[in-house]
Amino acid sequence: MTEIATASPASKAKRPVIEVRNPADGRVVGTVADESAQVVAAKVAQLRAAQPEWEAIGPKGRAEWLRKLQDWIFDHAETISDVLQSETSKPRVDATIEAPFVADLIGYYARHAPTFLADEHPAPHSPLGKVKKLTTIYRPYQVVGVITPWNFPFAMPGIDVVPALAAGAAVLLKPSEVTPLGGELLVRGWQEIGAPPVLALATGRGETGAAVVANVDYVQFTGSTRTGRVIAKACAERLIPYSLELGGKDPALVLADADLDRAAYGVAFGGLLNAGQVCVSVERVYVEAPVYDEFVAKLTKHVGELRQGADDRGYRYDVGALANAAQRDVVQRHVDEAVAGGARAVVGGKPTGVGTFFQPTVLVDVDQSMSCIREETFGPTLPIIKVADEEEAIRLANDSVYGLSATVWTGDRSRGERVARRLEVGAVNINDAAANLFSFALPMGGWKESGLGARWGGPNGVRKYCRVQAITAPRVPTQTKELIWFPYNKNKVKFAMSVMRAASARGLRRFGISL
Ligand code: NAD
Question: pTM above 0.85?
Answer without folding.
Answer: yes
